[in-house]
Amino acid sequence: MWGSGMFRGFRLTGRRSLSKTKTELYPYVKKRLPPRSRIFLAMHADETGRPKCQACLVCQQNCPDHVIRIERDPEDRKHALNFTVNSGRCTFCGICVENCAYGALYFSQDFERAVTCPESLIYRLIVDGNATGEGSMPSSPPAMESEEAADDEATAGDAAGGEAA
Amino acid sequence: MSGMQLLRAVLWLVGLVALLGINTLVGVYWERKYIGHIHWRRGPMHHGWHGLLQSLADMVKMLGKEDVVPSHADPIFFRLAPAIVFVPAYVALTVIPFAPGFALANIQHGVFFMFAVLTVMPIGFTLAGWACDNKFTLIGSLRAAAQLISYEIPMLLAGLGVVMAAGTMNLTVIGENQAAVWYVVTQPLGFVIFAVTMVAEMNRAPFDEPEAESELVAGYHTEFSGMKFGLVMLAEYGVLLGGCLLISMLFLGAWNMPFLPPSPIWLLVKTFALMTAAIWVRGTLPRIKVDTMMESSWHYLIPVALANLMIVGVLVLAFPKVF
Predict the structure, then answer these.
(1) Is the pLDDT score of A132 beyond 80?
(2) pLDDT band, residue A133 (cuts 50/70/90)
(3) Taking a C-beta distance cutoff of 8 angstroms, is the pair B210, B140 a contact?
(4) What is the largest CA-CA distance in chain B?
(5) Is residue A143 over pLDDT 90?
(6) CA distance B304 to chain A (A)
(7) DSSP 3-state assignment of A133?
(8) Is B36 an 8 Å CB contact of chain A?
(9) Phi, psi (5° rounding) for residue A46?
(10) Which helix (H) or strand (E) holds B265?
(11) Cβ pair A16:B40 closer than 8 A
(12) Crossing angle of helices B3-38/A4-18, nearest 10°?
């Protein structure tokens, strides 16, 4: 029929104007992500505020992308001095979280971490033996800036872990 | 004229200016909101609850903006044109009765006056386009002149059907005649023609060639900034209001409502519903081509409007009680 397309259009727009809008009010209203979303690695702390990590190095050794680097406390080998995450390399495979025997690691739901340089994607979950909550971004990039240095240190960590085992 | 009459006239004029201003503020907000919802967007959200103060913020911005005058613009007509566009939109409202006896001027030829006043608008558009010394404004103004003149003819012919049925051009009498049966029931074809041509008269989509933003920047008002643009906006929404009021007056029973007592509120409700429908049309139909626009008027609407006029004339003569 002549004009039927027009009426179909009116019906469509009329129905749409009554249905729910799709636009997110993103910066003003944060979206609730599905509970199993994998965003950034974070660390649980116990009741005293100490990080749950026991520096077993399982996560570091199993990480296929060398994202995690743990520096053990030489005096207390069950205690990590520094726990550094290079999230720029992370593929969010979740092997570290799955393998953590102490349930210390988890994926946080905080996705607002846009940065201006790749070095800023490196953050610490433990600094000098103290937990930093969900691993807030350091104000300045940590010492491990270049990828080569990170590789070297990760290898060194592997070696240390191997020795420890 | 006595002092009381003068005071009454001044109060009416101030009230109509306020109505025009409020109509523009609400109309702009409602248009942005409704079009947004048609697109599954939210429309204005940030100023006030659900963006209610957005139009007010826009108005303040418009008042504070620099009034730029192009260097080669005609010094007199560039300043005069927005006023010539605005004044007819305002004057057309003065003869609208909101209830029996509740009008600024209850003149005998109200319909004729409204059509005559609205005919002045193309002069303003043409002057605006010419005075700016800009090819976009010139093309837009020529399109506006062609469109408004083309669509006035079927509009007048469709309106004439109501005038014939009512036997008068007095808007109050036309409103009172629809207490039992609205003219949209007896003249549905006339209503459709009148509504379509009114959309064209308002320069609204799908007939917004004069200000086609994807082709002509903003058409005849490209060069206007600050309050000159504000006046053009006031005029656009004033014509929208006047046109919807006129459709409600002529075809939709004016202040009458079935099973309910007559009230000016019904007139305003119908007008608002028609304005929403105009926005709905804008959100649905794409802009038609200029040649199609002209063709649809001269080849289709005018013959159909003439036929409608003849049919209505015969029916009015044959069944004077019903029509």
Answers:
(1) no
(2) low
(3) yes
(4) 63
(5) no
(6) 16
(7) coil
(8) yes
(9) -80, -170
(10) helix B264-284
(11) yes
(12) 90
Asked if B135 and B253 count as a contact pair (C-beta separation under 8 A), the reply is no
Q: How far apart are the first and last CA of chain B?
A: 39
Contact state of A13 with B42 under an 8 Å Cβ cutoff: no
Distance separating alpha carbons of residues B142 and B137, to the nearest angstrom: 9
Is any Cβ of chain B less than 8 angstroms from the Cβ of A10? yes
pLDDT range class, residue A43, cuts 50, 70, 90: confident
Identity of residue A42: A
Nearest to A14 among B36, B41, B280 (CB): B280
Considering chain A, what is the average pLDDT of its residues?
78
Count how many Cα atoms sit within 13 Å of the Cα of residue B83 in the half-sphere of its side chain: 5
Residues of chain B with pLDDT under 50: none
pTM: 0.75
| Spatial separation of the C-alpha atoms in residues B275 and A139, rounded to whole Å | 55
pLDDT at A114 exceeding the cut of 90: no
Chain B nearest-CA residue for A20: B40
Contacts B39 to A, Cβ<8 Å = 16
Of the partner residues A6, A14, A23, the one whose CB lies closest to the CB of residue B40: A23
DSSP label at residue A138: P
The predicted pLDDT at position B201 comes to 87
Residue that is written with structure tokens 């109050």 in the block? B172
List the single best residue of A21, A28, A29 to mutate versus B (max B Cβ within 10 A).
A21
Confidence at residue B110, expressed as pLDDT on a 0 to 100 scale = 86
Closest CA to B211 of B147, B306, B285, B118: B147
Q: What is the 3-state secondary structure (H, E, C) of B18-64?
A: HHHHHHHHHHHHHHHHHHHHHCCCCCCCCCCHHHCCHHHHHHHHHHH
Q: Which of B128, B95, B142 is nearest to B228 (CA)?
A: B128
Pairwise CA distance, residues B272 & B143, whole Å? 28
**Lowest-confidence region among A9-18, A21-30, A126-135:** A126-135
Query: CA-CA distance, B266 to B179, in Å (whole number)?
Result: 12
Cα separation, B44 vs B50, whole angstroms: 7
Specify the pairing of strand A105-108 against strand A40-43: antiparallel
Look-up of token digits 């418009």: B62
Dihedral over Cα of B94, B100, B102, B105: its sign: positive
Predicted complex ipTM: 0.77
Q: In terms of Cα–Cα distance, which of B132, B82, B65 is closest to B235?
A: B82
Residue from the list B40, B283, B284 with its beta carbon closest to the beta carbon of A21 = B40
* SS3 call for B289: coil
Q: Give yes or no for B206 touching A (CB within 8 A).
A: no
A14: which chain B residues are within 8 Å (Cβ-Cβ)? 280
CB of B49 within 8 Å of a chain A CB? The answer is no
Task: Verify cis geometry, omega within 30 degrees of 0, for the bond prior to B206.
Answer: yes
